[in-house]
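Data availability (excerpt). The following record was deposited with the supplementary files.
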Amino acid sequence: MAATSSKTPIWLDCDAYALLLCAHDPRVELLGVSTVHGNAALDQTTYNTRAILEAIGRRDVKVYSGASKPIVRSAVHAADIHGESGLDGVTLLPQPVEPTATDVGHLEAMYRALIAMPPNTAWLVSTGTLTNIGLLFQKYPDLAGHIKGLSIMGGAVGGSFTDAPMGTVKGEGERFGNWTPYAEFNCDPEASHFIFSHPVLKPKTVLIPLDLTHQVLGTKKVRQTLLYGDEVWDPSFNKTDYTPSALRALFTQIMSFFAGTYAEVFSITEGPPLHDPLAVAAAYNPDIFDDNGGERFQVGIVTEGIHSIDQTQVGELGRTKVTKLPNGEGGCRIPRHVDLDQFWGSIESSMKCAVAVSPMPKVSIQDLEKAGVFNGVEKLQFRHRRDLDMTEKYPIEEPGLTTNCTPTLIATYCQRRAFADIFWLKCAQSKYAKLGGPMVKGFRSPGFLVFFAGQEIGTSAAINGLLSAC
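Predicted structure:
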């Protein structure tokens, strides 16, 4: 198989918005997709990828299920930000039609597709942990010299590398990591260390860190364009006479949920950063990125410690440490800025192409209102609160029973029992409800929002069960 001369061949290891660019930008030839542990468990990220490909009309793209855990560590997932499913808050996701590919293993599939391209033409784009990528080059070392480049979304440099807002966390102050104060979430430290230490890969690698992605925020204007199309800015455009497509509504839901949780967790309220498509753009449209006159860096990854949100154990595991190299010396490219107009223009043009071929059925204004799509565009939808005292006890009142429970206790119970809608929805509707959403370290998921304190909370048996279960 030969690459189309006008297109950049890319294998993606993978994300919803990155898929949109890879699948529908005319400058890209999407070779295949592999999934990896990260925002959610592997089976869920694989399902989400297949569902997104279904939504954007690319059933033809094969999806291979990759590594379920880091090379030497246990898997960690981002329920805080993306929810338990990896795409929480999304109600319009279609059922995927095509199954996960099983003709060969994911590493062999990646190798076959990339090695079939002419030398120095194909790119490997990684937007998750680097587990699959590290294992690929360990198994097939000849591939490193064959590909044109490796583009990675990951890491956080800090130290005012850019002027992007990196966010703050209540009780912790400013930080430049989004999982620990130092490290970006999707990090397999050992795999990352292998990649950035590789003598052949180093000079052909582009790193897109949080310092850059936090410049690319899904503002209200961006979300309006995403939902309605760029025609929304025509003075003659009338929103009331226009029903957005189901696909636009789906991607708006994804961004809006992310916006709410990012604002709540990191106090970035202008909009959420759109991390992963930047790694795709860096592969096929490098000229929109500013690397400060050709700067190149030596990149090191801290591999000692525990990659945890428990601040007593963190150390600096997963931290990205960069050293600027002398001019002309080969190293990793780390852009400091990107042309936002050109980038968002690529997202919009890809969305238009996807809408034209999407098999998703039409939806009504009423359906979209019910799904909360418009609310997510106009304002941030906060998912949980971080300002709770985790040791304070809040009253639960039931006829014949009065007791006190901490937010940790309530959330733990709901997490263990998957107590479902009837419990916390009933609590949310209670006229006495006065507390929302404990943010409990260890499983800070919007799926476990709990509203309690009120006579309508439920049965005495439920409360007794809660107390005995924990």
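Summary of structural features: The chain has two domains: 8-357, 394-469.
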